[in-house]
Task: structure prediction
Amino acid sequence: MRFDPTEDQRLSFIQGLEDIFKTLRERSKKARKEQLEKLYKEFKKAQTTEELNQIRQKLIREFRDLAPGRRFFGQPLRGPEARSGIYKLRLVVGDTVCEGLLTIRDDPLFNKKS
Result:
C-alpha cells in the first residue's frame, strides 16, 4: 500500500517529463515530432498521478528507441510505501463522513534478510 505522492514529488516528476519531452524533440525527425507534440498536449492536460504515469508509459512505448539510456524515463510517480502499523482513515463524500482503522502488517512471506 502506498500513500499519494507529495506535491514536491509530483512537481519533480512533472519537471522530469518536461525534460524528457525536450530531449526527445531534439532527437526526433518531423513525423515523430508530430506524434510527440500530440502526446505533449495530453501531458499538459494530465491531472492525476495515474494520468501522468500513463504519459510516461506511452513515452517509453513509443520513443524508447530515442532514449540515451535505460534510466532515461525515470521511475513512475508514486508516494511512499505505508509501513506496518494502524492508520486512521477518513472518507468524506458530500455531507457523509466515514471513519475507521486500517491495520497494515508485515508480509510474512517477505524475507527481510535477502
Observations:
- The mean pLDDT is 91.
- The first strand starts at residue 85 and ends at 93.
- Helices lie at 7-27, 30-45, 49-63.
- Residues 7-66 form one domain.
